[in-house]
Design a protein that fits this description.
Elements lengths: L1 H8 L3 H4 L13 E3 L22 E5 L20 H26 L17 E7 L4 H5 L6 E4 L5 E6 L5 E4 L7 E3 L8 E4 L1 H6 L9 E3 L15 E8 L6 E2 L17 E2 H11 L2
Antiparallel strand pairs: 1-2, 2-3, 3-10, 4-9, 5-8, 5-10, 6-7, 6-9, 11-12
GO molecular function: dioxygenase activity; metal ion binding
Protein name: Thymine dioxygenase
Keywords: Dioxygenase, Iron, Metal-binding, Oxidoreductase
């Protein structure tokens, strides 16, 4: 899949723009050129988000009437569509196994969370961080991607061997720790809706991409970086209350029942 990603982003800009991200900010599909995505809304955080330098391509299920896929013409990159869709559904199987493990951890029936993720209303994103100067990152002129939280249930992340991913220390706000690539592994990242859903039992960590610890550079330039996040959301049509067992008389519910679709779509609009 990384090979397909590299081949897509190596296409001329004009070819990639044959599958453009729509002007509608709720249609989260197709190609996004560098600078199109807005800076994240960090709420009351004192951090000042930096301009993010990356390009991406978003894919969903083919039968999604709300957000149909936007593909480049077949002759541009033959086999690209089929490979993306096959990988999308493999990621969905991984997602379901993670949800089963979470449900057991909450003391629930194994399929409890899977039942809320039937559709699936998910987003597979190919991401490319072009080579940029080390100086521009160290002087906080830009970031490969600014610090942010994800917003659905969870994210399954594949990263190449370049590195640079950092996550905020949950015990020391403002301190970021490197998340180095581990061969043949994935990263599972809790997102904001899961935080609400679990009544803050599981937190969604702030994270971003900056300078890798062992960056191999040429002429002061950071190398290209590729990653593939799979953003997992509960079915848009459902309204969920906080997970049973995460609240009590001594620890009451912090959140009202919420529509998955309304919450996720609002976050999508805020990001573009």
């Amino acid at each position: 899949m990384f090979d397909w990603s590299k081949r897509f982003f190596a296409l001329p800009h004009e070819s990639k723009m044959l599958a453009p991200f729509p002007d509608s900010r709720t249609h989260h599909r197709g190609y996004t050129f560098p600078g199109r995505e807005k800076l994240p809304d960090l709420g009351d955080s004192a951090e000042i988000p930096l301009p993010s330098v990356k390009e991406s391509f978003d894919i969903g299920r083919e039968d999604d009437d709300l957000m149909p896929n936007i593909w480049p013409p077949d002759h541009i990159l033959p086999g690209f569509k089929e490979s993306c869709l096959a990988f999308y559904w493999k990621c969905h199987e991984v997602e379901k196994n993670i949800l089963r493990a979470l449900a057991l951890g909450f003391g629930l029936e194994e399929e409890w969370l899977v039942k809320h993720h039937r559709m699936p209303d998910n987003d597979l994103r190919l991401q490319h961080y072009p080579s940029i100067s080390l100086e521009s990152v160290l002087t906080n002129k830009v970031a490969r991607i600014s610090n942010h939280t994800d917003y659905a249930t969870l994210t399954v992340l594949f990263q190449d061997n370049v590195g640079g991913l950092e996550v905020e220390d949950p015990n020391e706000p403002g301190r970021y720790m490197a998340v180095p690539p581990i061969p043949n592994s994935i990263i599972v990242n809790a997102a904001d809706f899961l935080r609400r859903w679990s009544n803050d039992t599981i937190r969604s960590p702030m994270h971003g991409v900056r300078v890798p610890q062992d960056a191999v550079m040429k002429d002061g330039m950071l190398p290209d970086r590729y990653s593939i996040p799979y953003f997992c959301a509960a079915d848009f049509s459902t309204v969920v209350d906080v997970i049973p067992g995460t609240w009590s008389a001594d620890y009451p519910k912090k959140y009202e029942p919420n529509s998955v679709g309304q919450y996720v779509l609002k976050r999508l609009v805020d990001g573009y």
